[in-house]
Queue: 2 jobs
Job 1
Amino acid sequence: MLIDSIHSPSDIKTLDTDQLLTLAAEIRSGLMNRLSKKGGHFGPNFGIVEATVALHYVFDSPKDKFVFDVSHQCYVHKILTGRKEAFFCDAHFDDVSGYTNPDESPHDFFNVGHTSTSVSLACGLAKARDLKGETGNVIAVIGDGSLSGGEALEGLDFAAELGGNLIIVVNDNDMSIAENHGGLYQNLRTLRETNGKAPCNLFRAMGLDYRFLADGNDIPALIAAFRAVRDTDRPTVVHICTKKGSGYAPAETDRENWHWHMPFDPETGKELIPGGGESYGSLTCEYLLKKMKADPRVVALAAAVPVCIGFTEEKRREAGRQFVDVGIAEEHAVAMASGIARNGGKPVFATHSSFFQRTYDQISQDLCINRSPATLLVNTASVYGMHDITHLGIFDIAMMSNIPNLVYLAPTCCEEYFAMLDWSIEQNQFPVAVRMPCNGVVHSSRRFDTDYSGLNRYEVTQQGENTAILALGDFYQLGEALAAYITEKTGTAPTLVNPRYITGTDDRLLEQLKARHSVVITLEDGILNGGFGEKIARFYGPSAMKVYSYGLKKEFLDRYQVGDVLKANHLTPEQIYCDIF
Amino acid sequence: MLIDSIHSPSDIKTLDTDQLLTLAAEIRSGLMNRLSKKGGHFGPNFGIVEATVALHYVFDSPKDKFVFDVSHQCYVHKILTGRKEAFFCDAHFDDVSGYTNPDESPHDFFNVGHTSTSVSLACGLAKARDLKGETGNVIAVIGDGSLSGGEALEGLDFAAELGGNLIIVVNDNDMSIAENHGGLYQNLRTLRETNGKAPCNLFRAMGLDYRFLADGNDIPALIAAFRAVRDTDRPTVVHICTKKGSGYAPAETDRENWHWHMPFDPETGKELIPGGGESYGSLTCEYLLKKMKADPRVVALAAAVPVCIGFTEEKRREAGRQFVDVGIAEEHAVAMASGIARNGGKPVFATHSSFFQRTYDQISQDLCINRSPATLLVNTASVYGMHDITHLGIFDIAMMSNIPNLVYLAPTCCEEYFAMLDWSIEQNQFPVAVRMPCNGVVHSSRRFDTDYSGLNRYEVTQQGENTAILALGDFYQLGEALAAYITEKTGTAPTLVNPRYITGTDDRLLEQLKARHSVVITLEDGILNGGFGEKIARFYGPSAMKVYSYGLKKEFLDRYQVGDVLKANHLTPEQIYCDIF
């Protein structure tokens, strides 16, 4: 195969057009090999094969520097920069991450996994180049809905002022993860329909030079377009139109579900391990649809990941105007939720724990200062959540629970989750966030409160003595196991507490525990620093109570095995028992 | 005076044009009365007098709902909505805040103080109106550089998709706090120069309807423009051009310095209490200019508040391309700093503690995951900082110190601050933030390390016994006073520790302290929740050490007296002594 002779980008520069086309086909076979067996970002990579080949043909990486936005479309770049074995050779799948990664290659400059960062990062590379008096192109590649994110728009706006060489390749495949949202995508459509000639042009309005290429899957045309802007002395947009999932019919047809895909049979496109069973996503969707039918003021908000609360295309249609996908625009989503709540609506905004990081200030300023009674659903907030360094769900407690006025609730099971969610939607006093459990859908026949407005009252679920276990959220089951283990080992049952509220301490209960307990153990599914256990430790600081706080170390984990991480942090009943007794 | 008969917006609807002009003049006299004696946002309010009069003339507040961006330009709105005494009557100055405030009036919907939030909040009000089947206009008023903020751009992009009635008044005064930055302001200039007719139009590119008004200080023209869009059924931008500081010559001339102004003599424009003396702003500027001259890779970044590190217009010119004001775009600033550092530059980005909230995700993802050795200077991070509910500087420890890989340093005085800053600029291992002291420029003859790469080593500045005081950053002086007080009262000197590192515990030292101490006191200038003291409490949780953590309660303070807040939080040596001994 031709690919056998490609070890670095310089190896493709001597190929002729036919060979480049052959190479593109071989690259797709490598992508198919990895993605069908391991899963991953299918549509973005199949769509950008030709553009990546052309970029490496025209530019001289790593002297010329590429920054891939979100970087989930960097697989082809990896194949061309010395990492092809991770795609063609099954034993090497784990050699690479799913994102750009400077630890893997000098052709990668950043670990990137959140959207909308490429233009700003590229501006920085370009600025440093200019300060040092060096030369070379800096190229940001952005698409898949990322343009609507505030950071991208800030970057585009600033780029014109930066001046000098900067090339922004807008990979326009007319899709985010789901369909695109926002007025600017109407402008992209107009530009597509006018072959880039419409006088009203978002990029020119931002002060940038602009070129258009209708067929972003045509290698010779791409090469010509990139050559035309190479070594430009002005920030320049190259708007290319690509087909998401190009080259694989099921992915071209159902672009939303093939954005990221589980392992599948390449012949049929069918998943190898079919999903199924209960999930908090679909349960939440069914619950919200029911609420919406009963109350026109209820509205669900998503920011480009509607499926994290089960809103598939069909469910979105069912919800009608009571479902809003704002696109990749988390800041807008939280502020808009505050506005909706302020004017008597009942908004529920859901996204992943990691993406709530994009809207800290809006949670604080727009929502919490104003005490707007909106509901935030924090998804995959857990060591059991996503395992990539850029998508970790273990920082939200530290980030959100220290914001005044917010009520952050940690349900321990399915029934408690819906009790809390229902209360939150119906109340109009507090901004509320609910940390969706992430250790599977656990059911319980315990009785749960329907009113959580008496803040910071912890629930004693088992009255014991000597030791009290405060087991937060989806670590409650770990607390149950630990309680059983301690009982078995010592013959004395400890007290077990479901704290429920992450954002405050139940001082009265904590005071009472002093009477018959000398040890308190806290368990939380997140980093310890800035977290729940430290608040308990502070409460007992001046007292004789011994406090042991268990949770995760403050670190950026990457592609981890949950079991390994739990062990490393002493998060098994046996380890905790050994530590203390 | 005509103003005597104005008690609510309905009172101006019967006035004729001459009377409205008279009213505008009287309003300016009220503004002058308050601002010359109390200080405040001068330019924004003098510039928007006519527009606010016209808005209240045409629309029917509070059924029609105004959202003022940043809301530092809401004084005229306050005068017209029942709060004029706070401007005309000195005894009532303190009746109102400097921002919109729902506690003051049903004409205000949000506490707002950060920029770029109005469009998203207004989208929320409009969405709730539509869900409830109600009518009425929702009007966002945005200007003063706010358009470049990511949240504003997300909001503009989404607004078109929202549909229905939404009016966005773009108050274009060609200024941010300093000059505007970003390519979109070139487009605004083109629109001004073409009387709104240029075919390339940022707002239309975002999918919005658009109207232009050349003279935004002309009441009849404003009334006509607002009438034309009243009850529109589509999101519509009204672009009005106003003169910042209009009606007061010094403010029209020197717009940057009159954006916000200290009390002054109206005759001369001279400040009543001249500034002067040392400030960390000007000291930092002089230091950075010197570094820049010695090293072309050093670059200072600001986000529309360049003066927070002393970069006046003159100093910005002196720094040339080694100073970059990105405009109101904190997300972009942090990501760009990461890119600069990644490519061998030495970026220093400074802004206020409260504004760092706008870039949590960029600090985590763009900067810290990538270990980019950029420097962040965190200004007014203190109970001594800004006192408005929207600008508090007491949350940054909780927000930033729990992000992995970040080294957050807390200097105790001027000499230590510059030692840390210099180390940070010269090193290339860590993303570093420095918490600028805020309790005046305190000098010290103590010797300070020049190398801080051995992380988390606390410094014992006074060896004592029984009690150890860990006094962080600019609460170190409180620690000294407490140590002296304890010595005086007990006859035994406590140990005094300068922790220096906010982001980690010195486990070895903390362990050693157990030998001769039974009490540890932590002092920090920020909220306790998620802060430094809790980490110390967690460390000692399983031990016999008594830990007392002192800092601020987790709450949104507003317009407070520092002394009151310190007392309420037991932050005087006497109170602490009484609590413990």
Job 2
Amino acid sequence: MAEKSFHEIEGGLLVADGFVASTAEAGIKPKGPDMLLLHSRTPACAAATITTNTFRAAPTYVTENHVANGHARTIVANSGNANAATGEQGMANARRMAELTAITAQVPVDEVLVCSTGRIGVQLPMERIEAAIPELCRSLNRDCAPEAAQAIMTTDTVPKECAVQFEAGGKRGRIGAIAKGAGMICPNMATMLCFIATDVAITPELLRQALGAAVSKSFNCISVDGDMSTNDTVIALANGEAGNELIDDEEMHRFTVFCEALDFVTRDLAKKIARDGEGASRFLEVRVSGARSWDEAHTVGRAVTRYNLVRTCIWGGDFNWGRIAAAIGASGADIDPAGVSIAIGGITAFAAGEPVEYDQDEADAVMAVDEIVIEIDLAAGDAEAVCWSCDLTPEYVELNAK
Amino acid sequence: MAEKSFHEIEGGLLVADGFVASTAEAGIKPKGPDMLLLHSRTPACAAATITTNTFRAAPTYVTENHVANGHARTIVANSGNANAATGEQGMANARRMAELTAITAQVPVDEVLVCSTGRIGVQLPMERIEAAIPELCRSLNRDCAPEAAQAIMTTDTVPKECAVQFEAGGKRGRIGAIAKGAGMICPNMATMLCFIATDVAITPELLRQALGAAVSKSFNCISVDGDMSTNDTVIALANGEAGNELIDDEEMHRFTVFCEALDFVTRDLAKKIARDGEGASRFLEVRVSGARSWDEAHTVGRAVTRYNLVRTCIWGGDFNWGRIAAAIGASGADIDPAGVSIAIGGITAFAAGEPVEYDQDEADAVMAVDEIVIEIDLAAGDAEAVCWSCDLTPEYVELNAK
């Protein structure tokens, strides 16, 4: 890769000019902050990608509807309750969250996006949410980025944030973002949420294009348990406070710079989600090369990261490359096994369709580290993709028994 | 269902006239019988269904090739080694198993089918196999049905056999069968093996048709871990020793009777595999109704039985119907959530798109039994399907760490 056109900075969600946020302990979760308001002081354009689960949560419909015109300023989110599989009452509650926020924050209702994450099938405690929203609107500030990352956590063990700075059309541009997600993670989109706030000036069309491309190569490449969620939502708000000349052409150099910065942020957060997978003890990166297309590489990588028997032997530290072969074969991709090569931690176990002798002590050693890299060469083309996951542990099962 | 046209009998694999078998401890597994020879004393027709995994094992190619003409008399099988991802040497070894069996048993090589199950990516210990095959051929007998079921076991905790008797065209017909499978089970086909020996007289075409239909509604409806194997094979041999008039027309009553008996045998063994899933403590049956087609019902049932987060809460005894909704939504079927109803253990939790109040004590009680039944009504048509699985337990992870 060429020299990076951006650099990572401290500060999390609120590094971009013009954004404020606030959090509240509304009592939806047993403890800790469980509501977040993110708001741009000036009008912003917006883009979102939303789960393809047909049982998707009520707030995803409100968000989809309100983001359709490419403009939104405010996100209201809660953790502890997914507002999914909640029928008509759930839809009314999601709309009510948007309306109350709009009235109190004095923005049009269709500029308010709504997100929920947590238990499925239980109605939101609306009296608590209605009590919290005015307080959230009153207390908007620029200093609560750490609390913002915490307010959307459910089974996450660490908050997840990322911020970058770059030059866009002669001006300093910034992106701040937070994400959550640890279980029910197989985005297409996962339950993951990600909120991205940037101060670049960009058209809604190009923001949507940049976000779609970034999500497909980041969040859509991670799997914790293969279980697609009802609530996955990634939202980007861009308020133009950086003062750069508008990014309104995909051929512009500054669009490329913005996309590179956005890709870094989304990949960084996606990997943080995989690393913090429920019960995870090891991080898994699967690099697929030699595919005929990115889709084919992604299909194979995804299948390997979803194969329970690969993930259990990552936990057990077993150099069991045969299960990787089985997963590749089960992926549905039209693979010729005679061309395939497989390596784990740099040790080739299968080359061009034939098993290869390896040193068992070396194999044991590469399985004893915290980050396992599996490389798969399909020898069918030039395309490649990278997918991420974590090991499957007894702790995962224990965590999800209730 | 109308009165059954068959009844279950004791005796396992060898109840049908004219079949003999033998087992050996060849030392492929650490202990116990690990090779099986099944043989018809008279010519037999044969049908097989084989895994769709593109990384399928060498013996599946030999079996596919030899069964293509609809005739085979002998199956040679080993457990402890899958002979999968073993390249050219693996292919030569699978062919050698067939050739040596053919020579010693004095049958044409293309009447010998080969199956392996066990660890992937390791070459077969051919000297041990070559030493065992002559002994297997010498010791063929009609009394070793229990040992036959054991000889194909890997991580199975119990042998799996089933036998039925029925009247076919005025004669007594019988089907005896064994199966194995506990992990890497998501047949399409799964690692499961199933050998079926019947003495009815039937054409190869109708045997193939009956077997295909039976497998799609039995083995292809079970999932232990969602991981499609490299070796799954179901083989049926029919030697005509019952002396019935040939079944050569699908409109014949005796074809219907045979199919009903075969369906029972394959479903019985499929459920035994799900019940004996690696680390399983509870059996799960998912009944999907109101679908527009069997395929749609099967897609939804399969998705629910594959959803890790459903299977963990079955283990935990948590009446977490919301995860079932998420699994239905993630299935890829074109579902309208507003019509869907969900019940667990007879307690409706979600009716026509709305959550329903239920008594928590009653919900806890239905989750405390060994067999959990989930009913899903899609309210979109008249088709239905049943899928089976087991709970996901910490023991499953422990078992598969190495």
